[in-house]
C-alpha cells in the first residue's frame, strides 16, 4: 500500500483494515487499532481470520469470500466485545 494512501487513511475515524490476496493484514489505521487491538498486539502480518473471534470472524471471512466470488462490495455486520459494527468489504485493484 502506498504511503500516500495509508497516510490519508490514518485520519479517518472509521476502523479500516486492508488484507492481501493471501488473507493477511497489510494495513490497519489508528481507529482500527484503538477499537480492536486492545491487547497492544500488532495486527500487521496476521491472518484476517485471527482479527475477530466467533461470529465476527465468520462474518468477516464470509464477506471476503463474497467479494472474491462476486468482485463487488459487500456489507456485513459483526459484533465484538458487545458492540455491533457495520462493515464494508471491497475489492482493491
Description:
With 93 residues, the chain is α+β, with helices and mostly antiparallel strands. The protein is built from three helices and four strands. The protein has helices spanning 3-9, 30-36, 54-70; strands spanning 17-19, 25-28, 74-80, 83-89. Strand 3 and strand 4 (83-89) form a beta hairpin. The chain starts with a helix and ends with a strand. The relative contact order is 0.13.
Main traits of this protein?
93 residues, two-stranded antiparallel ribbon, 4 strands, two-stranded antiparallel sheet
Beta-strand percentage range: 15-25%
Q: Residue ranges: pLDDT <50 for 5 or more in a row?
A: none
Write down the secondary-structure element order: HEEHHEE
Terminal Cα span: 11 Å
SS field, number of helical segments = 3
The spatial strand order of the largest sheet comes to: 1-2
Oligomer: single chain
Q: What is the 3D form? A: globular
Structural class: alpha+beta
Radius of gyration from CA coordinates? 13 Å
Mean pLDDT over the residues: 88
Report the major sheet.
Answer: 2 strands, antiparallel
DSSP strand count: 4
Bin the helical content: 25-40%
Secondary structure layout:
Blueprint: H1 3-9, E1 17-19, E2 25-28, H2 30-36, H3 54-70, E3 74-80, E4 83-89
Amino acid at each position: 500500500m502506498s504511503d500516500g494512501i495509508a497516510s490519508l487513511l490514518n485520519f479517518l475515524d472509521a476502523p479500516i483494515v486492508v488484507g492481501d490476496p493471501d488473507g493477511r493484514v497489510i494495513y490497519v489505521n489508528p481507529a482500527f487499532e484503538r477499537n480492536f487491538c486492545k491487547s497492544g498486539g500488532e495486527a500487521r502480518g496476521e491472518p484476517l481470520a485471527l482479527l475477530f473471534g466467533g461470529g465476527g470472524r465468520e462474518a468477516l471471512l464470509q464477506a471476503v469470500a463474497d467479494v472474491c466470488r462476486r468482485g463487488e462490495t459487500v456489507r456485513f455486520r459483526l459484533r465484538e466485545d458487545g458492540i455491533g459494527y457495520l462493515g464494508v468489504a471491497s475489492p482493491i485493484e
